[in-house]
Design a protein that fits this description.
This protein is 23% helix and 31% strand. By secondary structure, the chain is α+β, with helices and mostly antiparallel strands. It has a single domain, classed as tt1808, chain A, CATH 3.90.1570.10. β12 and β13 form a beta hairpin. It comes from Thioploca ingrica. Pfam families: Uma2 (PF05685).
């Protein structure tokens, strides 16, 4: 009895059909599907802390906050990613009228892990930058106080600010909000 050969290339529609029925999440990049690993307790705490802060501050504004089950489609990279946190301005724009895949993030936050940090810092950031609405990217280290903030400048360049002390405050660029790092890392460190 022969073993069926594993399919090497999937169309975006094939990926979405598989993802709808899958027991676990996977990301899609240029025809390939990559299973996602589970997140640690610190990863979850940081994500919940940030979502709570953002949702509370933005609830009466024209911004909306989504957690890690909302996909982002990046057409130029032919990629579907699941950011840890996504913020949109105004109404969500959906990929092919799917309510689980948005096109218009303005702020994306990724909580880094050993297995994802290289891709979050390079490949994903390269892809996210091609989205016209995308203005700000935060990379949060889950192991110690360290946060990198990239904000889009008028001339299509990105400004990097680094934070690595518990008593500093992060000033978001996309939304008018200041966050203490100690609040992001509550119950983590």
């Amino acid at each position: 009895m022969s073993v069926p050969e594993k399919q090497l290339y999937y169309s975006p529609q094939e990926y979405l059909a598989l993802e709808t029925q899958a027991e676990y999440k996977s990301e899609y990049h240029s025809g390939e599907i990559f299973p996602m690993v589970g997140a640690s307790i610190n990863h979850n705490r940081i994500t919940v802390n940030l979502c709570t802060i953002l949702n509370s501050a933005l609830q009466d504004s024209n911004y909306e906050v989504f957690m890690n089950d909302m996909k982002v489609w990046i057409p130029t990279a032919q990629t579907f990613f699941y950011p840890d946190i996504t913020v949109i301005r105004n109404l969500p724009e959906f990929y092919e009228d799917r309510t689980d895949t948005i096109l218009n993030p303005c702020l994306i936050i990724e909580v880094l892990s050993q297995s994802t940090q290289n891709d979050d810092k390079s490949g994903k950031f390269d892809a996210y930058r091609s989205i016209p609405s995308f203005q700000e990217y935060l990379l949060v280290n889950q192991y110690h106080f360290q946060l990198e903030q990239f904000s889009k400048q008028a001339d299509e360049q990105w400004l990097l600010k680094e934070y690595d002390e518990s008593d500093v405050k992060l000033q978001l660029v996309t939304v008018d909000l200041t966050i203490k790092l100690v609040d992001i890392y509550k119950k983590v460190i």
